[in-house]
Amino acid sequence: MKIAVISTFPPRKCGIATFAKNLVGAIDLHQTEEDNCFIVAINNQDNNYEYDDNVRFTIQKNMLADYIKAAHHINYSGAKVCLLQHEYGIFGGESGVFLLTLVNRLKIPLVVTFHTILDKPSFMQLSIIQSLCKKAVAVVVMSQKGIKFLGDAFQVKDNIYKIEHGVPDIITDSKATVKNTFNLSDRKILLTFGLLNRNKGLETVIEALPKVIERYPEVLYIILGKTHPGVVKFEGESYRNKLKLLVKKLRVENHVHFFNEYLNEKQLFKYLAAADIYITPYLSKEQITSGTLAYALGAGACIISTPYWHAEELLSGGRGIIFPMQDHNKLSALINDLLKNEDKASKMRESALAYSDHLKWPKIGKEYLDLLEQAAAKKVKKEQPASIVDLSILPPFSLAHLKLLTDDTGMLQHAKYNIPDYKTGYCTDDNARALLAMTMAYHQRKQQDVLSLITRYLSFMFYMQREDGNFRNLLSYDRKFLDETGTEDAFGRAIWCLGYLVKYAPNAWMHTLAQKMFNKAEPHFKHLKTIRGLANTMIGLSYYLHKHSYDEQRMSLLLSLKEAMLETYRNNSDANWHWFENEVTYDNGILPLALFHYYEVINDEEVLEIATTSTNWLDSLVFKNDHLSLVGNQGWYHKGGKLPMFDQQAIDAMAMTFLYYRAFNNTKNEKYLKRMFKTFLWFLGDNALGVPVYDHKSAGCYDGLEKKGINENQGAESTLAYFLSYFRILKAQHFEAELNLLKGAEIASSEETTATV
Q1: What is the Cα–Cα distance from 394 to 64, expressed in whole angstroms?
Q2: Which candidate, 261, 460, 285, 275, places its Cα nearest to that of 352?
Q3: For a tag on the chain, would you pick the N or C end, based on fewer CB atoms within 10 A?
Q4: Residue pLDDT, tens place only, 580-591
Q5: What is the mean pLDDT of residues 2-8?
Q6: Would you give the DSSP letter of residue 317?
C-alpha cells in the first residue's frame, strides 16, 4: 500500500526527521518494494536539503502555496492514506496553521501522529489540533498522558491510538568492550545526548559533579550532540559557551567532555552502551515525547531524569529514577548511590531492556501499518470548500524587475517600458515602499537576496534623512539632492516603513537603526498638515506602539494625529458623503486604513465606526460589476461631480488591498476578505479593460490603466504596489485559515449546545 508521509526528513537535523526516517523504514519492512512510503518533506527557510529518493515533494515552511500544491501531489500520487507527523514549530503560520490548508484539501484518509500535546494550549493551538482531529480518521499519541490531554484540553476522545516511540534494534558489544574502544576503560561515564538548547538543563549535571568527583574521581560527563540549528541561528553557541564557563568555574575541566557532533544511530548506541548512567535533566515538564529517552531505554541504560511527562510514564515500574528539576544536590546523591550499588543499577538496566523489547522499530512499524491499512478502508472526511483566497492563480514569485530597478544606491523611480530610466533618479517615496515590501517578503521567504535588498533600501533612507529628522525626497542619479525637504506624503511613507521595521526587523542592527531614525523624525509628527501625511504616519506609529506599548508619550502623539483625522472627516462628511475630503483622489484606502491601525492600538469604538463606514462608502464607489474599478485621476471625483474611470493607478489598488486586509482583521467580516482577493485580481486582468497590469515576463507592473489602453512603462511605484499587494494576499490566506477555525469552533459550540439541550 502506497503511503504519503508528511514530515521533516534527513539530512535535516531534528528529532522528527530521524523519527520519520526510522518509521518509514520500519513500515516498508512489511511491504513490497512497489508499495513503499514516500515523503512530503518540510523545509525550513534557510536550507534546501539534498534528500534521498524517498522524498517526492518539498514544502517551504512559510510558503502557503506549497501546501496547496502538496495536497494536489498527494491526491494524485496513488497513495491510499496520508500519515502526518505533527509538531507546531515545523509548519508555517501562527502555531503551524498553514498545515490546515493542506489537510483540508486531501481526498484520501488522514492519520496524524502528535509529537507535542499541550495541557494548556492557546486558542490557535487548540483550534488547529481540533481541526486536525476532525479531519483525521485516526490519531496516534505515544503516551497515556497524550490520550488524557487530548480529552481534557482538546475535547478529542475518539479514534485515538497509543503507539509508543520506536527504538533501533541494534546489538552492541559489552560495556567493557565499548569503553575499551573509546579508551575509557578507567572512567565512570555519565552521558546526555541530543541537540543542545537552554531547556536541556545540562548545568544541573555540571553543578552536581563536584560532590560526585569527591567520591568517584574517575567520573567523566559526556555531553554528546550539536547545538540545535534554530538556537545557533539566533544566539550562536552562547549556551554551549555558558556551560563551558561553568565547567571552568567549578574546576571540573577534566571531568566534562563536549562532543560537538551529530552521530548516526550505531555510533550513538555505542556511547549509550558505554554509559554507566544516562541523565536527562530537562527544565520543563511539558514534553509528551522524548526520542532521546526512548533510545536510552532501548539501549538498556541506567537512567536518571527530571519529571517531564514522558519520563514519568516511561521510567515508572523501576525502569529509572526521577529527581526534582534543577536540584543538583539530589542529583549528585543519586549518581553516587548508583555508582556505589551496581546491583541496583543492573536491575534498572534489565528492567529497561525488558520493557523496550516491544519498542523495536520493526514491531512499531507493523503497528503503524496495521492502523494505516484500517484507515485506508475508511471514508474520507468532508473536504474543505473552495478557498476565498485562491493562491493557485498567483504568478510565481520573482524579483527580476525589482532588482533591475535597484542599483547600489537604491531603487530608481521610473522605467521606459521595462528599461530603468536613470534620468529621473531616485525618491524616498519608492525606497520606503521597497523597504516595506522586502521586509514583508523576508518574513515570508527568509531569502538572503531579500535581506540584501532590505539593507540597500534602509541605507538609502538613512542617507535621505536630514539632520533635523525630516526627509528629502528626490535624489539625482549622480547622488545630488534635488530638494531640501520632501513632501509630507514621502515623510509619512518613511515613517510607515520605519515603524514596520521597528516591529518586524530581520535582525537587531536593522531594528536599532530604524528605531534611531524613527526617534529622530518624531518632532515633525505634530506639524503635519496633509491628510495622507497624517495617515501614513499614524500607520507607522501604530506599528511602533505594537512593539513599545509602554511608550505613553507616543501614545499621546497617536491620539493627537487621530483627532486631526477625525476632525477632517467630520468637517467634510455628510449623510451621502462619508469621506475625509470634498474629493476622492489618490491612495484613498490608506485614510480609513490608518483608523483601523489606530483601533488595534487603542480600542475606540467611534474610530472603528468611522473606519468601517468610510471603507464601505469607498467600496461602493470602486466595485462595479463585481470587479475593481478605481477612481480615475483625470479630474478625480468631486462631491456632486462625476466619477472618472481613467487613469487607474496601481498604488490605489495596493491601498485598497491593504484596507480590506485590515478591515477583515478588525471586523472578521468575510466580505472584506473576498473584496481583498478581488482587488488583487485587478493586477491580473480582472479590471475595466480586462488586461493584466502585471507583466509575467518581466515580473514588473505596468504604470496603470488608461482610456486608450495600458501604460506600458514599468516604474517603481506600480511594481512595488504589486509586490506589497502580493505579500498581503499571502498573509490573508493565514486569515482565511483562522476564519475557518473560528467557523469550526462556532459549529462545535452549536453542536455541543444542541446535544446538551
Answers
A1: 11
A2: 275
A3: C
A4: 999 999 999 999
A5: 95
A6: T
